[in-house]
Automatic annotation (TrEMBL):
Stretches with biased composition (Basic and acidic residues): 31-54
Domain of life: Bacteria
Name of the protein described by the UniProt record: Uncharacterized protein
Region (Disordered): 25-54
Taxonomic classification: Bacteria, Bacillati, Bacillota, Bacilli, Bacillales
Length: 54
């Protein structure tokens, strides 16, 4: 029974942290979506030019 109580306590703590992170994400202006160029891809998804490998 002690293990169940421990797991329940961990779950409640994680839920509280989750709610606080959602609040922080919604209030922090840097994290708000901005209209970026749709042509600009993130660096890790750009197509590679094979001629640059050699």
């Amino acid at each position: 029974m002690k293990a169940i109580e421990c797991i329940r306590s961990i779950a409640e703590s994680l839920y509280g942290i989750h709610k606080e992170l959602i609040k922080l994400n919604n209030t922090h202006p840097v994290n708000r979506a901005e209209g970026k160029d749709k042509e600009e891809k993130p660096k890790n998804t750009r197509e590679l030019d094979p001629s640059k490998f050699m």
